[in-house]
């Protein structure tokens, strides 16, 4: 596989070398092309979404241009004036470049030119940025990541006006700004440039796009293949193709999770579009079986039905496919594959297109009523460059606000932004989070909260195992919170089948997170109109351990507590933190109960619907009712509830539970329906090394038995168990009777 | 005034007595009229909103009719089967009656007839309902209120089919069901019937509408004027006209607040419509200068911009003008006054019209594009039948999602559903609650939560003074939580002027809530484009007391805490309830700070916008950071935050503060703007018995001074104060320099 990729690269090297620079008057060709300019001009009035996008851009550019050309000497950290000004400059320059092409109004060209000249006059005098906090400092900005982003935008601005500049202006701008700027990002800082990481992708895109914009083949080659770090270095530098090979799994999944995948996509998509415009013979969008298209579709699928990304790992919950990165990605992928009409409905929701050939295609197709509703599907996304480092599984049933979606993370660690959360689950009902992932503890760009950086609580709470809906062993965090250890292994996919809407199943194993403890978690999403109103999620965690351990199984539900069948005792006058470390120090103990029944129920209400969690409990089990917010000296955490099933001093054991989505409470008519679950009991009726069987008892008196094979996940295997009076026979890795 | 009303009533009595019952074949005339039936049939296809309303009704009626005619012997309490069945029966009967008129399909008529016959056969055998928990028990239901509602609906159903029944069917239904049913509600239970209360309105409407439906004038007169409670009783019984005189203030405000006003409106509107259809000469909609129209418009104005009612007093927060009561009210008032085109936009939002003449008018006008956007206004709503029992003030600036709205309650107690919350405020930004009123502690119809009734925490928390954004004296609740005492007085309006959008002011005094303590609260809503982005609310509470007291001023903010300028100390491992009683037992103390500066700031983030509360503080003041949820043994309360300014052992004092709405945090671009307030300082620069002046310092260096007259609220008074070097001269009750 590896070798194959090198061969592919070699072919690309040859073909790339054959392309010769153009010598005639430069026309825009990087993202916006001369051909698109002509078409946009003639068709703009007939394409409302494009028209709105141009109006929006015009408004934004005009507003900022009122402030004149400001190129301050770099001084401030992220969020400060010079940082924000240089950021806004590249955005406005790019916009003004596009508007120069579309309108021919000189003020746009002059603005970009004056700005670039001002930069060219300042740039050679700049040393490293005075705020030296980054492993990779920049010059205009405190970190070179922002520097690369600046160049990705600025190269587009330059591409739009360079054909209309005087020779001496071009020379000044290229020799004093663009070339040294690109060199700084590549040959002068090869370690960052060659790094397989989204920072490296931005740098490659910046350098490669500048190469196209100024007809510099060497730059383009650096962008493709990285730079050599010395004569003795036998390693091929990284570069764009390696990034394409290594940063996405074969399913297009990016290991840090969808929040960062969204961010990483933009330089990929822009550079790929630039390559496609300038070296169409490379068929870059076909590379690695269309990996970029897969990456975009994976990002879109990893959202709740309101478009917000599933917030596992470090992630802010409000981020969605409305982000500009996805506007670019959706348009560009649609232009590459116009058969995918579902992308058009997302573009409609975004209500914006990028102003270039791709955006034009989308605008035309929308106007032609070609849009189809986007379909969220049950899918498994493998992790790792080869797809062998676990996966993220997503099961969905129903649709729209009646869609139930359960997600399990059984992937690799996800690098520095990963959480210690193997086998964690999330549950959505429509766009509502029912069992939540906390996401990251961070208020991006909010100066009050540690300058907008990750909060200390991101480490002490959000990354810890107890912060997730997964089993905690001995009150400790997976891998003893050791990232290096965690990075070495991943969970193992066991079953994934989302084909039968009545019974969808996923199962995975985690053998390394806790030494001496092997875990397998199986989720079944069941729809059955005869028994249940919406759906039931069956949740079985089988734990194998030879020694005794303490187990905590948290469910971080969102909503208002309604009821529990246990005789719980709430803390009424004084409450205490649940523990000292590993995240436990952040939970207030609100109350607890002994599991006196073999079923422990918790009912909550969220946005007009009821949810019942039924856990099978054993003598000695406890149920803890907790709320987040202890040891939070700056009141930064969200004070949300959880329920924790605690089983102490036990070797191998199995946790069987189910969550039913049911009923409603209307906000205005105040009518309440089906506030009691149809499912009444969950019982593990058979549990050996080979098989686990869980019986579901319904209010109707009907029973169902769900059986999982723990040792054979083939579709062909024939199985048989005797369970009391009942004999069950089936083929494949699971069955429902 | 009283005498005048009796004369008016007398005139009505005479004119009512002159109307003679019709003797020809009965046509519907109660709410739906024969004329409307013809028009609806011919125009339905051209009126989409009416069409959707008929479709919705047809679907609902058909679905319920599938279950057949079920008239169970009454047994269950609210929420139980027989309760719900009898409730659904009246809804479906009324719908089926309407559909019989519109479609002529016999099955609808037969359904209503069979149902009524079944009731007629059962009713004479019924004693009081077995669940005897009400001061006014019913027969079908546990309380006679539901009984009256049953008859309001059923009289309409009967009106729709009675012209098509056999004589013997009519006789059976009237003599065994409708007449004894109406008698039970009136002459047999005169105390409830004569009560000035919304229960009395339902009873009057039920009896009066039945009177029209069966041509029984005596019933109509009982409904109008109440029933005599004995020969020696000199009092005129209450009845509908007394209810119209006494339940609404001259501004149309209902003393229990908008949540219950909404509920109370339905019988008023239906009965008034029935009167207008049957005795148009009474001009019922003109009665008391159009009090019903005023009541409906007041209800609509007492909402946030998403239509939800301001939740002061006992109120559920999700209730809005989408409720069926308001669908009726909006349609009927529009038909009475078709010049009010703003009502049409609300009808459009409701997306439903009632199926009768009024709904037809609305549907036609909507179809004719006559709708105008509803305008929320700054208004003061007087309380009490004569308008002399205080008021509720509402100031608004901006519009839509950029509207800031501040509400102050300086009204009477609001009967049994009132809270001890004089001078409390609420702040909205768009539809977002920024300073909240908790509303009621109740989950209506949710069996898990005390059967859906008011929770114990409604009394122990929601009604208490500390639960509101108003001053608490000596940790006690206003009027020592004594309803009788509270009912005797009301707050006193002092200033209300919402005319100048740049400076709107309201002020009120409360002299009785705490013995020995007189309070005046003044709110100014200031818009000033030069200094502030959205608006600033200035909040001044002037307290006069000769003895020392402890004062707590809570602000129940909603949102995520961002920052405070004080050196606060959070409780990290253990936290305790703030007190033992008067609501304090429900607050966890999260942290506290000594007011070491003369300004105490709290910043929070709600739905992408920042809010800064700046309170002037004095040496010795404390700031408490609290969270609701202590002493909540069933986890019923919402765990929301508050900040409390505490000033101990002080006689007269003044609390000056301001809340600024500013900045933004975009959910997707993550761009943060203006996270710091423009207002930086609030200082009381002058404070005597006669005048209070508060200086506002802005970031720009500019200063403003807001002056209030505490003893002269005339518009004409000339005033002058010397404040340091500055002399201020003005005319009227307040000024801004």
What does this 3D model show about the protein?
Chain A has 737 residues and is of the alpha+beta class. Chain A has two domains: 2-30 and 67-247, Alpha/alpha barrel (Glycosyltransferase); 379-736, Beta-galactosidase, Chain A, domain 5 (Distorted Sandwich), CATH 2.70.98. Helices cover 33% and strands 24% of the residues of chain A. Chain A is built from 18 helices and 28 strands. In chain A, helix 5 crosses helix 6 and helix 6 runs parallel beside helix 9. Chains A and B meet through strand 12, strand 13, strand 14 and strand 15 of A and strand 12, strand 13, strand 14 and strand 15 of B. Strand 14 of chain A pairs antiparallel with strand 14 (574-576) of chain B.
User: Share of helix among residues of chain A?
Assistant: 25-40%
Spatial order of the strands in the main sheet of chain A? 7-8-9-10-20-17-16-12
Shape of chain A: elongated
* Overall average pLDDT of chain A: 93
* CATH fold description of the largest domain in chain A: Beta-galactosidase, Chain A, domain 5
Calculate the terminal CA-CA distance of chain A, rounded to whole Å: 43 Å
| Number of domain units of chain A | 2
- How many individual β-strands of chain A? 28
Number of helical regions of chain A: 18
């Amino acid at each position: 596989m590896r070798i194959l990729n090198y061969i592919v690269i070699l072919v690309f090297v040859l073909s790339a070398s054959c392309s010769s620079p153009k010598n005639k008057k430069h026309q825009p060709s990087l993202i916006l092309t001369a051909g698109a300019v002509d078409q946009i001009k003639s068709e703009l009035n007939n394409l409302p979404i494009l028209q709105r996008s141009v109006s929006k851009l015009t408004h934004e550019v005009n507003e900022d241009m009122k402030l004149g050309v400001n190129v301050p000497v770099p001084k401030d950290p992220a969020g400060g004036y010079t940082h924000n000004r240089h950021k806004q400059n590249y955005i406005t320059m790019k916009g003004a470049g596009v508007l120069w092409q579309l309108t021919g109004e000189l003020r746009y060209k002059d603005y970009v030119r004056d700005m670039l000249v001002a930069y060219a006059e300042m740039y050679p005098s700049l040393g490293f940025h005075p705020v030296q906090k980054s492993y990779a400092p920049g010059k205009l900005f405190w970190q070179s990541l922002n520097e690369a982003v600046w160049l990705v935008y600025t190269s587009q601005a330059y591409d739009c006006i360079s054909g209309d500049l005087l020779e001496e202006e071009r020379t000044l701008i290229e020799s004093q700004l663009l070339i040294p700027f690109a060199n700084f990002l590549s040959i002068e800082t090869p370690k960052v440039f060659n790094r397989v990481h989204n920072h490296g992708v931005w740098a490659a895109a910046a350098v490669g796009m500048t190469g196209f914009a100024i007809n510099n083949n060497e730059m383009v080659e650096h962008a493709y293949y990285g730079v050599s770090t010395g004569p003795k270095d036998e390693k091929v530098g990284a570069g764009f193709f390696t990034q394409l090979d290594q940063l996405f799994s074969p399913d297009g999944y990016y290991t840090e999770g969808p929040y960062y995948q969204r961010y990483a996509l933009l330089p990929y998509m822009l550079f790929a579009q630039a390559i496609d415009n300038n070296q169409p013979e490379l068929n870059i969008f076909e590379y690695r079986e269309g990996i970029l298209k897969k990456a975009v579709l994976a990002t879109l699928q990893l959202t709740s039905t309101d478009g917000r990304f599933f917030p596992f790992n470090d992630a802010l919950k409000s981020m969605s496919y409305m982000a500009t990165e996805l506007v670019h990605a959706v348009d560009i992928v649609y232009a590459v594959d116009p058969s995918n009409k579902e992308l058009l409905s997302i573009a409609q929701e975004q209500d914006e297109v990028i102003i270039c050939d791709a955006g034009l295609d989308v605008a035309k197709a929308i106007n032609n009523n070609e849009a189809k509703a986007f379909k969220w599907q049950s899918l498994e996304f493998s992790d790792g460059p080869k797809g062998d480092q676990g996966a993220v599984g997503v099961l969905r049933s129903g649709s729209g606000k009646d869609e139930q979606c359960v997600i399990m993370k059984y992937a690799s660690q996800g690098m520095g932004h990963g959480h210690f959360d193997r086998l964690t689950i999330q549950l959505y009902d429509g766009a509502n989070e029912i069992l939540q992932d906390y996401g990251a503890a961070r208020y991006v760009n909010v100066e009050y909260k540690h300058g907008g950086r990750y909060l200390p609580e991101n480490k002490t709470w959000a990354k810890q195992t107890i912060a997730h809906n997964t089993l905690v062993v001995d009150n400790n965090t997976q891998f003893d919170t050791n990232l290096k250890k965690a990075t070495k292994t991943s969970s193992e996919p066991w079953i994934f089948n989302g084909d039968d809407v009545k019974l969808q199943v996923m199962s995975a194993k985690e053998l390394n997170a806790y030494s001496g403890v092997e875990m397998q978690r199986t989720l079944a999403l069941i729809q059955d109109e005869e028994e249940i109103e919406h759906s039931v999620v069956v949740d079985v965690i089988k734990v194998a351990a030879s020694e005794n351990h303490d187990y905590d199984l948290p469910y971080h539900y969102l909503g208002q507590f309604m009821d529990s069948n246990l005789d719980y005792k709430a803390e009424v006058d004084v409450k205490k933190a649940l523990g000292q470390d590993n995240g436990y120090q952040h939970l207030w103990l609100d109350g607890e109960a002994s599991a006196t029944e073999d079923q422990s129920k918790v009912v909550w209400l969220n946005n007009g619907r009821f949810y019942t969690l039924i856990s099978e409990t054993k003598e000695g089990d406890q149920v803890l009712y907790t709320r987040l917010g202890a040891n939070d000296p700056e009141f930064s955490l969200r004070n949300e509830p959880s329920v924790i099933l605690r089983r102490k001093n036990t070797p191998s054991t199995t946790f069987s539970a189910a969550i039913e989505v049911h009923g409603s409470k209307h906000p205005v008519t105040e009518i309440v329906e089906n506030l009691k679950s149809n499912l009444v009991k969950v019982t593990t009726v058979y549990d050996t090394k080979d098989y686990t069987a869980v019986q579901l008892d319904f209010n109707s008196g009907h029973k169902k038995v769900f059986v999982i094979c723990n040792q054979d996940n083939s579709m062909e295997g024939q199985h048989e168990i005797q369970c009391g009076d009942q004999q069950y026979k089936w083929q494949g890795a699971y069955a429902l009777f």
